[in-house]
Amino acid sequence: LYQFLFIYVCRDNTEVCHPWTGECECKAGWNSKDCSRQCPILTYGKGCHGICSCKNNAQCSPVDGSCICPPGFRGKDCSEECGLGTFGEDCTQKCNCKNGATCSSETGQCFCAPGWEGQYCDRPCSEEKYGIHCNEKCNCKNGAACNPQNGSCTCSPGFTGELCEKRCEFGYFGQNCQQECQCNIDNSDGCDPVTGKCICKKSWKGVKCETLCAIGKFGPNCDHDCICKNNSSCDPETGACVCSRGWQGENCDQPCEKGYYGLGCKEVCPVTSDNITCDHVTGEYVCQAGYIGLTCENPCPARTFGKDCKQNCNCRNGADCHHVTGKCHCLPGWMGEICSIPCPQGRFGVNCSQHCKCFNNGTCRGNDGVCRCKPGYTGTQCNESKTSVVYIKKH
């Protein structure tokens, strides 16, 4: 007859080794004959009899059942999603998404509203594009600006129509062709549809084609000197000033009031959000570095920056840069001046600011913190052992 003797080799996680039978009595959080295995997933405590109540794939402590929340969740059982504008571990990080974009509660990644792109959704669609993901093609004509959200057209002076495909009718000019030419009808061939400048017939001169005298002269014999400034002309009989574009006053020495431009200072500058105004003569805007558009309303398109958006970002690994300074905004998982350095081990996320939660020498992905486990371990945090039960059998 064979006599079997079972000798259990109790591991460090043993609370008591029975002196007669040699059986191992495991500490809370451990089980198996030799106490070498952690409690199975979703269980905890002495004998692994407790049932975990953690939500949203949170890790449950095999010892006491407390929940270790994944990025994007918080609360005792990890059932509470990060509030609006926050993300990451314990929801302590703030989203930087702009222009109505939403933010991933886990990684902080921005999901842009129609018309916007870039890491933080702070760039309008590139030229000729609009809509969700900037996938739609604009149809605006004649240098018109295309609304990046819905594709509607804002016409350049001298054009009108839904797509800005029509030139102003004779006798009209300017933004949306709303201004009437102010030229002497008999002495002119209308006005320039863009600027409103009168096109004088042969021999006629002056801002409104009102005189045969040389510029700066008036009177029956054109022998009196005008006192009008800024290339303005004067009435051929009275000498009263006829101001050139962008000027007003008795002697045409005063620029148009803020917000107005053009002939007679009757044209209205397009409204802007930051209280800048247009050139009092041409109606054009001189954009500051980092901005473009008819009214300088849009920051540079993605991956460009600086004056007139003519400089290209020098950022690596898919990163964008600040539209004014060119400073790189690294994608999750990267750091450094040009985003060329991967996160150091143990860190992940935006600016490598989040801590990995991988156990047993597991490593985590730099962009989202997903754990890669060493052989012998598994689980979302590499804290589940694959080790087989070890015991010795003799006969």
UniProtKB/TrEMBL annotation:
> By its UniProt entry, which Pfam families does this protein fall under?
EGF_laminin (PF00053), hEGF (PF12661)
Q: Where is the EGF-like domain?
A: 49-79, 87-122, 130-165, 305-340, 348-383
> What are the UniProt keywords, alphabetically?
Disulfide bond, EGF-like domain, Repeat, Signal
Listed under GO biological process in this entry are: animal organ development; system development
Any S-S bridges, and between which cysteines?
C69-C78, C112-C121, C155-C164, C330-C339, C373-C382
Which molecular-function annotations from GO does this UniProt entry contain?
Answer: scavenger receptor activity
- Report whether Disulfide bond shows up as a keyword of the record: yes
Q: Matching InterPro entries, A to Z?
A: EGF, EGF-like_CS, LE_dom, MEGF10/SREC1/2-like
Per its record, how is this protein called by name? Protein draper-like
Name its species: Agrilus planipennis (Emerald ash borer)
